[in-house]
Specification:
alpha/beta, GMP Synthetase, Chain A, domain 3, Rossmann fold, nine-stranded mixed β-sheet, three-stranded mixed β-sheet, 10 helices, 14 strands, 23% strand
Length: 332
């Protein structure tokens, strides 16, 4: 008798759950992301894992789940808890001791080369006072906001954020150190989705931005960019010393503007010297990642917002090789 009385209650509990599960099964994007499904007093509740999704994808998935469950007979309310495991990102700082050595060009092309190697990459233009990445990456689109986070835009398979996308072109930013550090925080803590590597293009020198990055976000390592000439190498040594004092591993040194091939006769000259960065890397015990030649093609491509690493040819191969060596250093 007691057993017969309980049977209708069991059916009443299980049938809505089965209907809810069937509704979720029709949502391919929800596969593997839903747990803790419950139904009581007309309310369906569940947990949805949105880890690795962009702000738009999270909103779309939540709306789809809510809509599907709301259509099930007997459901008067849908309660959804969104959870996301924090993505562990590898931060690579790209720095130089002085300006004018092509650091931003190297950072942009390195990010593109890493993306072409199959990595999910974000590019942070941390040169608050002189942002170059919108020009180099051909992307001046204004980022959207998702709550309190800035949503990166994308170019050549790389997600990107730059203060240059948020202020009027040519505007002078007369910000003191704390304001610049706060802006850096907004960029670093943007909505990077499932990006696994953040390439951070630092301002030249050894100032507040560098210290803020190293103290708060602990880069996995640093790449130093220098030209072969002695003066640039002296300044690069100061940047290297700062990273070492802050216990940031030196992933390697890149020699930029290394040799110039005349577009008319093909003769190679060395206006900034030759091999100086490689020799300095050896003396300082730093891996040498490679040389980037000084070519008219590279200069034009950077001005036109088309990173050579995104295409084919000699320049693309150079950056692909540097990216490959960098990844080897990261996993060593």
């Amino acid at each position: 008798m007691a057993s017969a009385a309980r049977a209708p209650i069991c059916r009443f509990v299980s049938e809505p759950i089965l209907a809810l599960e069937a509704a979720l099964a029709r949502l391919p994007d929800a596969a593997g992301r839903v747990s803790g499904l419950r139904f009581k007093d007309g309310a369906a509740s569940l947990v949805v894992d949105v880890g690795g999704l962009s702000a738009g994808q999270r909103t779309g998935l939540e709306q789809a789940v809510r809509g599907a469950l709301a259509e099930v007979t007997g459901v008067a309310e849908v309660r959804i808890v969104l959870t996301a495991e924090k993505v562990e990102r590898t931060i690579i700082a790209v720095g130089s001791g002085k300006g004018g050595v092509g650091k931003s060009t190297v950072a942009a092309n390195l990010a593109v080369a890493l993306a072409r190697a199959g990595r999910r990459v974000g590019l942070v233009d941390a040169d608050i006072y002189g942002p170059s990445q919108p020009r180099i990456m051909g992307n001046s689109a204004r980022p959207a906001l998702a709550g309190k986070q800035i949503v990166p835009t994308e170019s050549y398979g790389v997600r990107m954020l730059s203060i240059g996308q948020l202020v009027e072109t040519g505007s002078a930013l007369a910000w003191r150190g704390p304001m610049a550090a706060s802006a850096l925080g907004q960029l670093i803590e943007g909505d990077w989705g499932d990006a696994e590597i953040l390439v951070v293009d630092l301002p030249p020198g050894t100032g507040d931005i560098q210290l803020s990055l190293m103290q708060k976000w602990k880069p996995a390592g640093a790449v130093i960019v220098s030209t072969p000439q002695d003066l640039a190498l002296i300044d690069a040594t100061r940047a290297i010393d700062l990273f070492r004092k802050m216990d940031v591993p030196l992933l390697g040194l890149v020699e930029n503007m290394s040799g110039y091939a005349c577009p008319h006769c093909g003769e190679v000259s060395d206006p900034f010297g030759s091999g100086g960065a490689e020799a300095a890397a050896k003396v300082m015990g730093i891996p040498f990642l490679g040389r980037v030649p000084l070519t008219l093609t590279l200069r034009r491509a950077s001005d036109e917002g088309v990173p050579p690493a995104a295409g084919d040819g000699e320049e693309a191969d150079v950056f692909a090789a540097i990216a490959r060596r960098l990844l080897e250093r990261l996993t060593a």
